Amino acid sequence: MKSRSRNIMIAVFTIPAMIAIATVFVYPVIRTIMMSFFTIDNVVSRMSDWTFAGVSNYVQLIQTPLFRQTWVTFLKIWVFGGIVIMCIAMLFAVILTSGVRGKSFWRAAIYLPNIISAVALANMWIHYAYNPNWGLFHNIFSALGLESLANFQWTSPDHLFLAMMVAYCFGAVGYYMLIYIAEIEKIPQDIFEAAKIDGSSGVHSFFHITLPLFRGVFKTTITLWTTGTLGFYIWSQMFSSNRDASAQIMTPMYYMIRTTFGDMASAHTETNAGLGAAICVMVMLAAGLAFALISRIFKNDEFTF
Amino acid sequence: MKKSKSVKEIQPLNLKKEARLLPGYIILVLWVLFEIALLSWIVGASFSTTKEIFSNQMLQSGLHFENYIYSWTKGNMGKYFFNSLIYAGFGVSGALLLSAPCAYALSRFKFFYNKALTNLLVLFLSIPQVMVVLPLYSIAVKYNLLNKHLTLLVLYICLNVPFCTFFLLNFFATLSRTFEEAAAVDGCSPIKTFFKIMLPLAQPGIITVGIFLFVNIWNEFFVAMIFATSSDVRPLAYGLYSLIQAMSTNGKWAELFSSVMIVVIPTFILYLFLSEKIIAGVTGGGIKE
Questions:
Q1: Cβ within 8 Å, pair A91-B190
Q2: Residue B103 sits in which domain range?
């Protein structure tokens, strides 16, 4: 009797959540994978109207130069953005755990951009910070007498990618900083004290104690960064809207949305939702590949205190 | 938190230590000053006229609250505001209602699909939302569910279940089992134990994840863009995006910036009071070690 009531309770507690997950994750993921092997006139076409196409959607995508370019853009964001964000986040984490006053204020201030809508934030950067006449960068560099930097055209097509990355990284730093701070605070302080007694400087301790202990959290942050970059999309849309096609910053996800739902769908004479699904599957495969590589590289790195 | 702050202020000023930390202070001050400049300019611009913004003479003719009135009424931001409030409020409650019991069962009981379900949750945590949108969109069209408040609400609830459950799962795991044992000895049924004892004990975790989710749904853009094409059901962030498209072409810049402020102010106020909770939401749920 007791075990029966226990089983009923487990069922009542887990089944609603499982239905939710099945509806918005399990079923869509399976159907997306299936869709990627079919030619589908419209996203909303019924399954009986699909025409089996084998891997031709994938072949067609790989043969599209614009689509190949989206992966180059992805890699550029992943590598450059990743290095810049992780280094600055680590720098702030080290500064904030070194005993500065007002730690919780600084921490909250640096994380602040993360609670502001990306649309609002991108708008501040595009229309204020980067404005060539009265923008923040213009004013700062003018005040410092650096005229050439003051006249830098941030939002011209040539510099748009840089402008987007600066704006994006400025906000993202806070998120990774929080993770690094939590990890540094997990390291027992007596390790540092023992090192100090043995004559290790703060910088020396950072490279020989903190960093080696950090391999586990690097694994976590690289994984998070990879998923984040694969889904990278709103910032491209914000920086690309109202621009010539050649100036737009196309990530795989942005390309998928534009061709399936957006203006690029109507521009083509024949649309094929199978292509969009194939892009989704490619992104999922890229994520899987990245996870496999990451867990191989960081095979023995799980430090728990 | 306030107590520990005042204790810190009492610490004597150790000049040698502060001098060593000086480079750190300089970096922090520069970074935060830049951020303040960025945010305060938007505040200023939202109260100025478009002409003042373009001639770099903000706030010369006093505070123009009419920008906000224009955004709120003619710009539809008022409507979007209440839509967002509905989605964020009910979305958080719904996600918690589904997740909290599931997380409790997963953390406390052994059953045959426990491990499978936990692994699935972690898997779906790392799938970008764009992955699931095509089939969901086709369902919505097929059953005429586009542009309905309920559709967006259900999506916001369900899409947040993995994060919410995973976060609470870790939280329940930190609670001692002695409470349940004592309750069982006193003849309290497991379901009653959950509602009367464990749920109140888990309140800090539930509040943390709830606030974190509230901010996320408030700022949500992507699902809204696909499922809310009509302005009647649009939440703020996507509403702002459509306004930007319109206002920047017809030159209503001051009204555009006051619309930005309408999106930012609520989360900013929430953050002023609850930043510690929101920050705890990141480090509690984000780290999977």
A1: no
A2: 68-286
Residue A5: closest CA among chain B residues belongs to which residue?
Answer: B190
Among A204-208, A252-256, A282-286, B211-215, which stretch is predicted with the lowest mean pLDDT? A204-208
B242 and B253 together in one domain: yes
Query: Smallest CA–CA separation between B24 and chain A, in Å?
Result: 6
Residue of B nearest to A241 (CA): B245
Q: In terms of residue numbers, what domain contains A238?
A: 65-297
- A230 vs B128, B236, B264: nearest CB: B128
- The reply to whether B106 and B18 lie within a common domain is no
The reply to whether B173 and B192 lie within a common domain is yes
Residues B119 and B209 placed together within one structural domain of the fold: yes
Residue B235 lies in a domain: yes
Tell me whether residue B155 is in a domain.
yes
**For the domain that residue B251 is a member of, what is the CATH number?**
1.10.3720.10
pLDDT for position A212? 80
For residue A268, what pLDDT is reported? 53
Residue B103, in any domain of the structure: yes
* A95 touching B (Cβ < 8 Å): yes
The answer to whether residues B32 and B88 belong to one domain is no
Q: What is the mean pLDDT of chain A?
A: 86
Measured between CB atoms, which of A95, A175, A182 is closest to B28?
A95
CA distances, A166 to each of A115, A127, B221, B228, B261 (Å): 18, 14, 21, 30, 22
- The Cα A19–Cα A194 span in angstroms is 53
Q: Is residue B35 within 8 Å of A105, Cβ to Cβ? A: no
Residues in B touching A241 (Cβ below 8 Å): 245
Query: Is residue A49 included in any domain, yes or no?
Result: no
Residue B151 has pLDDT above 80, yes or no: yes
Taking the Cβ of residue B28 and every Cβ of chain A, the question of whether any pair is shorter than 8 Å is answered with yes
Looking at the partner chain, which of A112, A129, A253 has a beta carbon nearest the beta carbon of B130? A253
Mean pLDDT on B15-20: 77
Task: Test B289 with A304 for CB contact under 8 angstroms.
Answer: yes
Q: How many CB pairs under 8 A join A and B?
A: 253
Q: Do A136 and B41 touch (CB under 8 A)?
A: yes
Q: What is the pLDDT of residues B58-96, one digit of tens each?
A: 777 878 888 899 999 988 899 999 999 999 999 999 999
Number of domains in chain B: 2
Averaged over B192-216, what is the pLDDT?
90
